[in-house]
From TrEMBL:
Tree of life domain: Bacteria
Organism name: Mangrovibacter phragmitis
Protein name: Flagellar P-ring protein
Lineage of the species this protein comes from: Bacteria, Pseudomonadati, Pseudomonadota, Gammaproteobacteria, Enterobacterales
Entry's family note: Belongs to the FlgI family.
Keywords noted in UniProt: Bacterial flagellum, Cell projection, Cilium, Flagellum, Signal
Secretion signal span: 1-19
Membrane-crossing residue ranges in chain numbering: none
One Gene Ontology MF term: structural molecule activity
Keyword Signal assigned: yes
């Protein structure tokens, strides 16, 4: 009997707690990507490039490039180019990147080019925030969109003015890194949570020894590498693969006011409440009535008289009771019973939180 009760208790604990790896919950401080940016030219377009009369920087960039190649363009030459486009090139330089490694780049039109399909990016230096060149980008652009136009009509699918070059940049300069130089490592939590930070610290201490890890705050866990450990890489790999029982998260409802999307996590609950929601629509219709004299020589004048009709309708508005809901399925079922649109649901959720019957944090993005 005791074994059965103990097994049921373990099953309930496993159901309530969710085990995740530390690598999925944290990042290592100092191990991050760095943004790179550059300005370049795309050539080989099928007449869909920049209109150089409206984008003079395209012509200026082409003249500078030709001069570096030993070609002098006569002064005052007005080049009407259709197959060249000025672009901005962006990339992320991963941590621990070495010279000769390739990274992906994103190419985006800067001028008024119609499409970059079929274009080739010329050699473009990519700089960091310190204005140093860390990579060189070049290659054929892959565009995920398609378009066609004829006879004044056009059709377009997806974006034609931006594309990607897989492995389009070669790393030329390495970033300095102090990883492994000290005896401490710092883990940064993806989400701020005091309970989770302490849980991660306790899990590491149980595995590596008491006092190895310490929760500094709700987002930082500091790890001291034990003496005699020759490789921080192996030690960190063992730590990141540890399983942590994630505590219950805060109940939260996210509302996107621009798109009308409403997202809630599984911890959201409702208390008993009554909701009345109605739609008020007002229609204003104005028509002009022309009044003319009966006889041509009667001395009257033609008069235009506006006639306005206002119609006001209100639909819905029934008072509906919402029962207490202890899980997400019941919450969804109760809110669907109101028959409200997503835009109406945002107002209802705000009012329910103000009334104290929505047990969740409301966040509007």
């Amino acid at each position: 009997m005791f074994k059965s009760i103990f097994a049921i208790g373990l099953l309930l604990v496993a159901t309530l707690a969710q085990a995740d790896r530390i690598r999925d919950l944290t990042t290592v401080q100092g191990v991050r990507d760095n943004s790179l940016i550059g300005y370049g030219l795309v050539v080989g377009l099928d007449g869909t490039g920049d209109q150089t009369t409206q984008t003079p920087f395209t012509t200026q960039s082409l003249n500078n490039m030709l001069s570096q190649l030993g070609i002098t363009v006569p002064t005052g030459t007005n080049m009407q180019l259709k197959n060249v486009a000025a672009v901005m090139v962006t990339a992320d330089l991963p941590a621990f990147s070495r010279q000769g490694q390739r990274i992906d780049v994103v190419v985006s039109s800067l001028g008024n080019a119609k499409s970059l399909r079929g274009g080739t990016l010329l050699m473009t230096p990519l700089k960091g925030v310190d204005n140093q060149v860390y990579a060189l980008a070049q290659g054929n652009i892959l565009i995920g969109g398609a378009g066609a136009s004829a006879g004044g009509s056009s059709v377009q699918v997806n974006q034609l003015n931006g594309g990607r070059i897989t492995g389009g940049a070669v790393v030329e300069r390495e970033l300095p890194s102090n990883f492994g130089s000290g005896n401490t490592l710092t883990l940064q939590l993806n989400q701020e949570d005091f309970s989770l930070a302490q849980q991660i610290s306790d899990t590491i201490n149980r595995s590596q020894g008491y006092g190895v890890a310490q929760a500094i705050d709700s987002r930082t866990v500091q790890i001291r590498v034990p003496p005699g450990n020759s490789s921080q890489v192996r030690f960190l790999a063992d730590v990141q693969n540890l399983q942590v029982n994630v505590p219950v998260q805060d109940a939260k409802v996210i509302i996107n006011s621009r798109t009308g999307a409403v997202v809630m996590n599984r911890e959201v609950t409702l208390d008993n409440c009554a909701v009345a929601q109605g739609n008020l629509s007002v229609t204003v219709n104005q028509q002009n009535t022309v009044s003319q004299p009966n006889t041509p020589f009667g001395g009257g004048q033609t008069v235009v008289t506006p006639q306005t009709q206002i119609d006001m309708r209100q639909s819905g508005g029934a008072l509906r009771r919402i029962n207490s809901s202890a899980n997400l399925n019941n919450v969804v079922r109760a809110l669907n019973a109101l028959g409200a649109t997503p835009m109406d649901l945002m107002s209802i959720l705000q009012a329910m939180q103000s009334a104290g019957c929505l047990r969740a944090k409301l966040e509007i993005i």
